[in-house]
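Intended use. Records like the one below are meant for learning the mapping from a protein sequence to its folded structure. Do not use them to infer anything beyond what is encoded.
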Amino acid sequence: MRVLLGWSGATVLVVVLARPAIAGPPFVSDDPEPTPYHQFEIYTFNNGTSTRDGTDGETGIDFNYGAAPDLQLTATLPAGFSQSSAGGTNFGLSNIELAAKYRFLHQDTFGLDVAFFPRVFLPSGSNTIGDNHTSVLLPVWVEKDWKSGWSAFGGGGCTFSAIRTADFCLAGAVLTYQLMPRLQIGAELFHRTADSQGTPASSSVGVGWLYDLSKNFHLLGYVRRGVENTEQTDRYSW
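Structure written out for the chain above:
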């Protein structure tokens, strides 16, 4: 079982009862490694992005279960917030996420871990928090680990919305290093394409870290800065 806990800001507390190293969180890019068979991973998190229009984000719980060898089932229950630069703050239930990660290639036989991780975003039920339409993300993620302590993972895919003009694609890559027995650090490049509703393309550079408080509890953090259309898309994120 793994439990991850988070707070507002750039740090997240994690509990892991499965394996000592974690890929994927806290980065935007995911990894292909599923939760071990018959084990749990539970994250609590807070994230957000600031633009010239204000700050939006979520806080919630992410449940993961190893339903079968190489198969992870995921459910994310977020509460969202939106603070406009013109004044006023809204709170409410954001988009519930349901996902399944299946790893179909392994490093020991193929040289890379490769997984398909489709994710459904349910409507938020609000015009001010999250997206009030169903959408589906269809990504593929890959990973390569080295005995020297280095690891690389990333991939991408596209999100298809009930409103087709809101469709977009994304891609990201992460490089991590086990700096100390309890501390892993990493850097990420991430890109999202524009959609047809007027949201411009965005690219960002981020840094993240993972500190093992114990065998089961871990502290994660992540911050990033936009480098493309920064004012409209990503002054800074956590």
